[in-house]
Amino acid sequence: MSEEETGGNCPRPTPLSFLKNIAATGSLFCDYESKVDLAAWSSISSRVDMEGVNGKRVGHLFENISSFVRQCIFSILNVGPVPSHIAFIMDGNRRYSKKQNLLDGDGHRDGFSALINMLKYCYELGVKYITVYAFSIDNFKRRPEEVASLMTLMQEKIDELTKEESIINRLGIRIYFQGNLKLLSDRVKSAAEKAMVKTSGNSRAVLSICVAYTSTDEIAHAVQESCEEMWDDIRKQEANNAEGNFIGLEENGKDENEHRIGVTDVDRHMYMSVCPDPDIIIRTSGATRLSNFLLWQSAHCLLYSPTALWPEIGLRHLIWVILDFQRNYSYLKEKKKQS
């Protein structure tokens, strides 16, 4: 076979090397003169003049090509184990805004577009649960005008997510807002509650949005709820006691441990009890800390910290972490069994 037929110096790709090349470079080809940047594909169609018929056709063409390529890639990835739950710490929106010399808030708007793309990729791959860390309780310590701006943007995007033609409804994704929602402004809290009601009939995938959230607050809330539940049970027992005193546990046929709060009790009252523990946590911007996110649930999950800022995250980052997950799957599975 001639050099032209084999692509010059480019070796014949195997499915695994093909995926690794995409994950490492964002390129479909090893010939650098003809490579296609997958990260740019998602934005090409939006830059085309959509007012003209030709512009629409080109936009649809790129969209169809992108969809076909993803289907091919995901069909290869699905040969191996696929995570059921991926969580994202969406870090770097403000730094991205400064880096691109954007106006305040524009970095978060681009971050929302990145979230929509990642939702689509995860759904197409077959990931059932997606969780995002959108707003920490600690973020309330920022400048009041910045917090107010973020609350307004959050309300706008929540309303956008629940529109009839939105990707959430097209893909059948149910939304949960997790956290101490009492800390949110009335308008944002109301929008969040409406979104949960509107999407309650969707069942193909679950998106958990953590707002006014920290893991320590979640754990404290779960312990408090567990204690209150236990006290309610004890009071009911005492009310049924003719003498009004607590009869010995053994006389009631109760084991002493039945009145102790265990891990399963706390776990049941967690905000995130609607989802299994995450298989992967991805934090953008290169930081390797969890920042008080899913501390209770992340004991046996894979952590991935790409240097890309959140609005820069793309398909290649997802491919890379899935390959890493598949490589470590047996080890992670064994660790879960031992716990």
Describe the protein.
It is a single chain. This protein is an alpha/beta fold and 339 residues long. The protein folds into two domains: 1-79, no CATH class; 83-338, Decaprenyl diphosphate synthase-like (Undecaprenyl pyrophosphate synthetase). Helix content is 48%, strand content 10%. The protein is built from twelve helices and six strands. Strands 3-4-2-1-5-6 form a six-stranded parallel β-sheet, with helices on both faces. Strand 3, helix 8 (186-198) and strand 4 (205-213) form a beta-alpha-beta unit. Helix 1 (15-25) crosses helix 11 (315-327) and helix 6 packs parallel to helix 8. The longest helix is centred in the N-terminal third of the chain and has 25 residues, at 53-77. It is globular and about 80 Å long. The chain starts with 14 loop residues before the first helix and ends with a helix.
What are its keywords?
six-stranded parallel sheet, magnesium ion binding, 12 helices, EC 2.5.1.-, alpha/beta, 339 residues, Undecaprenyl pyrophosphate synthetase, 2 domains, 6 strands
